[in-house]
Design goal:
40% of the residues lie in helices and 11% in strands. By secondary structure, the protein is α+β, with helices and mostly antiparallel strands.
Length: 360
Amino acid sequence: MAIQTELPGLDLGRFSSWLRTEIPGVDSPISGELIAGGKSNLTYEVTDGTRRWIVRRPPLGHVLATAHDMAREYRVMAALAPTAVPVPEMYALCRDEDVLGAPFYVMERVDGTPYRDAAELVALGPERTRAISTGLVDTLAALHAVDPAAVGLADFGRPAGFLARQVARWRMQLDASHTRELPAAVELHARLAADVPAESAVGIVHGDFRLDNVLTDADDRPAAVIDWEMATLGDPLTDLALMIVYGRLAAGTSSNANVADASVAPGFLSEAEIIARYTARSDRDMSRFGFYLGLAAFKLAAILEGVHYRYLHGQTVGAGFETIGAAVEPLLETGLAALRFEVDENTPAGSEPRGEREAR
């Protein structure tokens, strides 16, 4: 840990004074480091020389409170503590913006690795990679099995109409990043909007579930699910679909495109294996999973088109962004193809056209 005494967004003097009132026994000076920043929530590791904690706060500057709601992140992880879903222990939430200029919270520092790149898993070998990806799927199924009301999250979101709102939301996001004509986006949106299925039972949706948002311990087990800033109540099958579409994106994108590609490592569960394992641990209806894959592809295409827009306007920092735009149209085509397929409890996604099945 590279100790720093001055951190952007974290006034260590004010923070130390506050922390001493919240956690008994903190007497030594506090130091730390920024471990994740940018447009997402800022994450710091801080220490008093003996103990270590993680601090999360919104990005610097003007942000939408609803997009970076510290209380929501804190609440969902605290609620999941007694469940089978591994989460860090929550220590304290500060709503007083006079301390750091924004709400923030302090949680347990969990030992674990957020595997992002295939090379990291290749170094472990296919057996360990298989164990890690299996644990990932099991953790997702465990999350989706949690009854929100039973853990005090009955009012955590607006589940009614969730899928239709998602279709509309990502169309608006795509329109806001317009730089070129994308006929496949128009077609995919129209098909999604015209055929929204009945939603599966309400559950807790992580919103961005993938391997690098899970800390994996030294025994290759999930130690903590992190980055809950998009969590809500809704249809949990959107989580499963997005995880699979992330994998498709990784398989079809060059290695220098700033895309997490851990899922292409030898030993990582295949799409069919992911769906089969999830289905075996869930009673959710998978017969319209093609829609969920189409929606996930549309969502991810909208996100990447936003990155492409920022790259064209000189608003990105670092390498690899110049190739992001090339992934958008293949994603949209993937979404359109997914809508032509159905999945039943014995059939992996995309294995048989809906038309052929209906003709039998």
